[in-house]
Predict the 3D structure of the following.
Amino acid sequence: MIQFVDLRKEYQEIKEETDQAIQRVLERGWFILGKELETFEKEFSSYIGVKHAIGVNSGSDALYLAIKALGIGPGDEVITVSHTFISTVDAIVRNSARPVFVDIGPETYTIDVPQIEKAITDRTKAILPVHIYGHPANIDPIIEIAEEYGLYVIEDASQAHGAEYKGRKVGSIGHVACFSFYPTKNLGAYGDAGAIVTNDDELAEKLRMMRNYGSSKKYYHEFIGVNSRLDEIQAAILRVKLRHLDEWNERRRKIAEMYNELLENSDVITPVEKEWAKHVYHLYVIRHKDRDKLQQYLLENGIKTQIHYPVPVHLQKAYLDLGIRVKLPVTERISREVLSLPMFTHLTYYEIKNIAKVMRDASDS
Ligand SMILES: *Cc1c(COP(=O)(O)O)cnc(C)c1O
């Protein structure tokens, strides 16, 4: 059986460093808001190329807190996509703001920039593009629109640690960006974790207080915040893994290249990497007319795959009460065609060849 994601070999590769890092925290006896987080925040912000990183509990909290810290709330609108993981949009709704959906482009599956302006109203406060699957959204024209209308740009970079847009790391371009360190992400903790990055000093300070009960001095609270911290053990683990991120992203790119070659001239549509982009293949997503049948055939032949995502956010049961009526033809079509093939740093050439062969057999059968 070829798993969709298997993190065991990756741990073996970094076992010594990781075990030592965890041990170091246990022996120090300091578990929340300490040296490891402070150092990780410095290392991660310098990796992304921004002034500040603020570690939080999860990518979901990063998005929720970033939106809140920008003062976006009831009556406000945020323009985003429906083709994403649900928590991108939940973060808007949890702040009592309204998500306004724009369709995606059929090549990179990121927000279709020419459609953004039509969605802007006098209530619009921000544009929230998602660098989906590890491919950057076309962010320069998004920034231009945002500047023209006085809007914030909030990047959801949860699937794109290390991805680049015209040579700049994603997460360094918008006003603020959010990362998830969920275990299977390109940079993943061994538990839940996330971060917000920004160049805005004031916003960073506010976020540091927000994640810690609205407090910067113990037992003095300036506003009502939450408890959302990235703990010392996870920070220590992330410091180890950050040192391997570039090498691991290169491996993902190599795996994608192998898939692309082996699936050339078959009946699947392989992923695109735009000339202005460096894709980091959080997911390797193909499209196929008969997606469900192909997935079943792969499973029968010992290959596990997943669908990201089978139901767009605007059609989710959780969203029906919001009364969002919108037609998103590309989003809706893509959700019926996409299939994510196994993708993780230690997938072998032998396994990739086997997967490609089974895929070709599927179209002959
Ligand atoms: C993983 C992910 C999130 C949420 O991150 P969690 O750490 O699981 O809360 C948000 N947006 C996108 C696009 C994601 O892939």
